[in-house]
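From the shared-data thread, chain only:
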Amino acid sequence: MDEETYFPDTDLDFSFTSTTTDRTFPSSSARSSLARSSLTLSFNESRLSCSTTNTSTTNITTLHHRKWDPRWSAIKAAANLSSDGNLHLHHLKLIRHLGTGNLGRVFLCQLRDCSSATFALKVIDRDTLSNKKLSHVQMEAEILSMLDHPFLPTLYAHIQASHYTCLLIDFCPNGDLYSLLRKQPGNRFPLAAVRFFAAEVLVALEYLHALGIVYRDLKPENILLREDGHIMLSDFDLCFKADVVPTLKFLHCKNGKSKWSCFTAGCFGSVAGSEDEELVPEFVAEPVTAFSRSCVGTHEYLAPELVSGNGHGNGVDWWAFGVFIYELLYGTTPFKGASKDSTLRNIASSRQMRFLHVAEVEAAGMAEAKDLIEKLLVKDPRRRLGCTRGAQDIKRHPFFDGIKWPLIRHYKPPQVVGGVARKRGHVGHVKRRRWFWKGLDCLMMRNINKGYPQYCFLGSNIKHINANYYDYVHNNKLRKNA
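Structure, as C-alpha cells:
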C-alpha cells in the first residue's frame, strides 16, 4: 500500500527517514545488480532546519534538444520566484511513491504551481552510503548532467538538501520493459517488437559510448517506457567513463533496398534490391581503450571477461546487448542456471551458447536474429561484434535492415499485450469525422430528393453545382465503404 500513498499538500519542506532494506522496485525481478545496497526512505513531516540545510541546484540549461518542453518553462518560473534563483524541495509536491531502487527511493512529484509538470524525483540518503557507493551517486549525477538524447533521461535539477541528493528527471508512466515482457504470451515479444526495442536501445548505447560512457547495467528492468511508448534507459550509477577519439571512416557498402523495407507499426515488408557498391562515410566514436576491474552488474548479464576479474572494457555492453535480445525473444537469458553461481560458471565456461527450441518464435527473420545474438555473445571480446567500431557494425547487420536510423524516434511503437493504450481523443476524433461525412451525405440526398439547387461555399464565393455531382460523390463513397 505504500506505493499508492498520496502525501498531503502542505507548505512544509519534506525530509526522509532512512533505514536499510532488501526491497527493490516492485516491478523488478529478483535479479539485482552486484555491488549495490538498497535504501527505504519514508516520508516525514518534520521540517528541515534552515540552519542545517544546504540546498543547491544545477544550472538550467538552454541547449537541450527538449528546451521547448513546457516543463522547462515551469521549472524556470518556479526558480525565478525563489530568492536565490534556484529550485528547492519546497517547490515540489510529492504525489506517490513509485518504487525503491538500489541507492534510493523514487517518487512521482509535480511543481506546486504547475500541476501539469510531472517528474520523477530520485532521493538518495548520503549518510547511509559508503564512500564507494557515494562515488556511484556522484557518477550518476555527473552522467545525467551530460545527457541530451530522446532515449535517455533529462536531468531537470540536481538538488542537495541536508544529507540528501535529489535528482529531478523524466517520469515514464508505462513502467519498465521487464514488466511488459512478463505480460506477453510465453514471456516473449513478437519479432517485430524485439527489433523495435533493440534498435532504440542500440541508439542509446551508441550515444553513451560516443561520450566515452560504458553503461554496464543493461537489462529490461532498466529500460523504462515513456508516455509515447518509446524507451528511456535508466540507472547510471554503475557506469564508468573513458577516453574516446571520434574518427571518420569510409566503408564500401552495397547500394540498394534491403530485404526489410519498412519499420512502421511493427511491420516489415520484404523486397528485392540492387547490388551496386558505394563508398559511404561512417562516423565511429567507441571507447576502445576503456578498462576497469570492478565486478558490477546483474549476474545474468555479466560478460565473461567481467566474471573472470581480469579487466573489461566497452565490450561488456555489447555482450549484454546480445543477452538482452535473447531474453526478449525467448523469455529467459541464455546462460541462466539453477543459482547465481551456476549462471556465472556457465558464462565463464568454454561452452557455447545454445538456443531454445520454441515453435512460436521459429518465424521469418529468426535466422538473422540468431546470427546477431551469436556474434554478440562471442566470449573473446576481441572478436565480439561492436567492440571495434561500436554500434555502426551492429546497425549494418541484416537483423536491422530497412531501419532509417535518423528517423527512429518517430517510428510507431509496436502493439503488444499490456502496451501503450490508444488515446481516447484520437478515436473520438475519427468517429466524429466519420459521422460528419455520413450526416453530410444524408443532407445532400435529402436536398436532391426535394429538387433544391445545391451550393458549395468556398471562401466568399458561391458556386452553383448540379445535383448530379452529389449523386456521384454519394455513390463513390458507397463503393468505397463496400
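Residues 38 and 102 are 4 Å apart (CA to CA).
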